[in-house]
């Protein structure tokens, strides 16, 4: 586990907590009229949301969960409602994922999902919305190396990837492969990241910076940490790309609170839980779609 991802606790739940009021600036990148690289597509998505007066909405889904048919239906729902999509690659030994997403990965793997499943799902929606993989380093390196992963991701239409267990000091080969393919390598910073290290991470960031809201793994929390606004403000100061927040955001109200201080809001476990409880592909798409519509309204209010 990287220094940015130290394990810790967090209660499951979904009630609200307030964050100190902080003026959220517009994303610092101004994309070209015709975005061609992954970073440009990501920048365009953040800019489009900012022009609507809200933070960008980036839901997470697990490829192949709860089954292949349902994950396609969920992806379609996301493509119509999200500004960007975070697409999880199922992996047996995740380091950053809490119980909900870990269980989803296990279910997807047992149902036969593979890295190929994730690429196929990306290809289904990538022309309509920028797709950023959430993938562990093992999966990036084990199938022909970073160059081959980047080639396949580009062919599927991806805009980039988040690799949560890839530390800054070991990222250069993957960064080079992604740069050559025009893909964004999105880094993470956490409450435990020292300021000087955060500055170096932000300097190397592609696409956006992913701010982990709290110490611990993914999962719904009862409250947002009161120090989150200060962490986001400091990261915005360091970064030349948009800053999005994930981990622990489980309600539209919480999303709106984060949207007041950040350029983007990432929601995972709440949506994965809804998909798993739905019972059918149609019901899964309806459940996640309803939550995303409500969240978009909250972000814009």
The gist of it:
Helix content is 45%, strand content 12%. The chain has 301 residues and is α/β, with parallel strands linked by helices.
Structural notes for this entry:
By secondary structure, this protein is an alpha/beta fold. The chain is built from twelve helices and nine strands. It has one domain (38-300): Aldolase class I (TIM Barrel, Alpha-Beta Barrel), CATH 3.20.20. A nine-stranded parallel β-sheet has the order 5-4-3-2-1-9-8-7-6. Residues 1-17 and 21-34 have low confidence and may be disordered.
Q: Report the major sheet.
A: 9 strands, parallel
- SSE succession: HEHEHHEHHEHEEHEHEHEHH
Class from helix and strand fractions: alpha/beta
Overall geometric form: globular
The number of distinct β-strands equals 9
Q: Classify the beta-strand content into a percent band.
A: 5-15%
The CATH superfamily label reads: Aldolase class I
CATH class placement: Alpha Beta
CATH architect. name: Alpha-Beta Barrel
Helix tally?
Answer: 12
Give the count of structural domains: 1
CATH topology term: TIM Barrel
Sheet with the most strands: spatial strand order: 5-4-3-2-1-9-8-7-6
Binned, the helix content reads 40-55%
The Rg value, from CA coordinates, equals: 17 Å
> In angstroms, what separates the terminal alpha carbons?
38 Å
Quote the average pLDDT.
Answer: 87
